[in-house]
Amino acid sequence: MKLFRSDLIAGFSDKLFEIPVNELKTDIIQFAEPIVRCMLTAVTAFDGYKITGKLIWSTIEICDRCLTNFPQEHELPILFWLTSNQDLISEVNEDFLWFPDSQDWVDISTIVHDLIYLDEPIKTLCRKDCKGICPVCGQNLNQQTCSCSVPRDEGQWNDLKKLVE
Ligand SMILES: [Zn+2]
Ligand SMILES: [Zn+2]
């Protein structure tokens, strides 16, 4: 997504930008909606501009316990600087984006991409108390209970069987 110098000079507040997700080149994340919304505010700062705001998007997640798909809304604050001051640009400080005076626009897709990527949870549950699926019959236990008796410990179960025999 491009931010144009003319817009930045004029300044904007809580302006809505919509980024098509295919611009972000993410093949791992499954989006529920094909756009990411950015509400951005721009003010002049540090030989350039300070951009603040938030990102809003939704994904389809898969529950680790019951394996069902469910939609998830995400919202994340965003903060970065565009600057023509080379001293501020370093690999350590990735919040500063190079924006030389000769450039009419700057692409912020990488920043948006990275924030969305980092927000992907390592563990996903459809709800906190998800009951998961029965390891015996495969029933989703959130929807219905089953009558399987699940052995807590295989070894114990085998000993019990021997006793019965
Ligand atoms: Zn679940
Ligand atoms: Zn079962």
Cofactors and ligands: zinc ion
- By secondary-structure content and strand pairing, the structural class works out as alpha+beta
Q: Please give the share of residues in helix.
A: 10-25%
Largest sheet: 5 strands, mixed
**Overall strand count:** 7
Q: Please report the number of helical segments.
A: 3
Portion of residues in beta strands equals: 35-45%
Order of helices and strands: EHEEEEEEHH
Taken from the alpha-carbon principal axes, the silhouette is: elongated
Please provide a written account of the structure:
With 165 residues, the chain is an alpha+beta fold. It has helices spanning 5-10, 109-118, 154-164, and strands at 2-4, 12-20, 35-45, 48-62, 69-83, 96-98, 105-107. It contains three helices and seven strands. Strands 2-3-4-5-6 form a five-stranded mixed sheet. The chain has a two-stranded antiparallel ribbon with strand order 1-7. The protein is elongated and about 85 Å long. It starts with a strand and ends with a helix. Bound molecules: zinc ion (2 copies). The site of one zinc ion has 7 residues, from loops.
Protein topology:
Elements: E1 2-4, H1 5-10, E2 12-20, E3 35-45, E4 48-62, E5 69-83, E6 96-98, E7 105-107, H2 109-118, H3 154-164
Parallel strand pairs: 5-6
Antiparallel strand pairs: 1-7, 2-3, 3-4, 4-5
Bound molecules: zinc ion (2 copies).
Keywords:
single chain, 165 residues, alpha+beta, 2 domains, five-stranded mixed sheet, two-stranded antiparallel sheet, 3 helices, 7 strands, elongated, binds zinc ion
